[in-house]
Fold this protein.
Amino acid sequence: MRYLESGRARVAVAASYQAVTDDVRKLDDDELSRPSGCRGWSRGDLLCHMLLDAQRALVTFMTPASGEPDVDFISYWAPFRPGAAGYAEHARFVRRVASSYRSDLVIAGLWAETAAAAAHAAATPAADVRLATQGHVLLAGDFLATLAVEATVHHLDIGMDPR
């Protein structure tokens, strides 16, 4: 299994999380309720998905694994494509969680706090530390790369209004 050098990945996570935070802070509740680039999700729904991902990152950084890595920063993505098993259920779950908040601005505030904490926690593990997440084992450098990629792609989705 290959792994990505973690220094650049750490910088990428922090930069992409901060860029999302900076742009989301410019949006009001009406703008957050508009469609995102992810079909069926508003910008607020997508931000809730990202919030859950940042929370998962915090847990993952504190969940060392003893097994051998079974995915890397490339193969990790195989099960997460539209139409894959569990995709529709996850989308429905995220929309329900997001709708439980009184305002998408609350989600934006929680994102800002959690993203900053996750970016800070990203500095902790060495690149070759094994971490457990979503039923897989990844090297920390690979896990960091997945976080950076997802945040960057979804940052583009948040900025996109497909109307």
About this structure: The mean pLDDT is 90.
